[in-house]
Amino acid sequence: MTITITAFERSPDGGQGLARDTRVRWALEELGQPYKVRLVTFEGLKQPAHLALHPFCQIPTYEEGNLVLFETGAIVLHIAERHAGLLPHHANARARAIAWLFAALNTVELPIVELSNVMLLERDMPWYAERLPLVEGRVRDRLTQLSSRLGSAEWIDGPFSAGDLMMVSVLLRARSSGILDEFPNLAAYVARGEARPAYKRAFAAQLAVNAGAVPS
Ligand SMILES: N[C@@H](CCC(=O)N[C@@H](CS)C(=O)NCC(=O)O)C(=O)O
């Protein structure tokens, strides 16, 4: 069945791979699943056709036959459950990999997104200088805990899984703040994710769109 995802026609990050279609592309690439991409403008996000796919007017969405999904956690979990390779076979290990996927989104991404919002949207606010260190501190706290759990392991809990895919995707969003580099084991973990051939293919595909190589 054909898989179609949506992505920005022009991502605000200019192709750094931070838009969330990259993590879905990565999961599909890891599992060798071909997919099509429908590009959407910011205006298009609000149109009825896209709203029917995504109640919050965002990308990415995922269509496969009659199934329409939104939320990258749900999409990556669906892909990982449908095709072998991103979730361990053993039930307990599988449950833990899924827990890490949720942790990436619910526990680690939240302060990272908050920091991005402060840095991007609140720079001119009178409270910016006071608020920034507070929000940076929340990111630092989470990364301290994650760094301690990862230790010198290659991946977060056994072989590479959907949990690592999501955690690396989330941590990439913290890199521009400089905080990720304060944790050499996390920076190396992210670099290992980026070095995976499937990640490189996903990154190149989204970059081609943003470099104008893919017609919209
Ligand atoms: N929790 C959602 C977040 C989706 C999201 O924030 N998408 C961004 C692009 S990375 C978007 O569409 N932003 C446009 C907007 O919110 O107007 C997920 O993981 O899928």
From TrEMBL:
Residue span(s) of domain GST N-terminal: 8-87
Record domain GST C-terminal: where: 90-216
Matching PROSITE patterns: GST_CTER, GST_NTER
Superkingdom per UniProt: Bacteria
Keywords linked to the UniProt accession: Transferase
Name of the featured protein: Glutathione S-transferase family protein
GO molecular function terms listed in the Swiss-Prot or TrEMBL record: transferase activity
Pfam family of the protein (one): GST_N
CDD domains, per the entry: GST_C_8 (cd03207), GST_N_GTT1_like (cd03046)
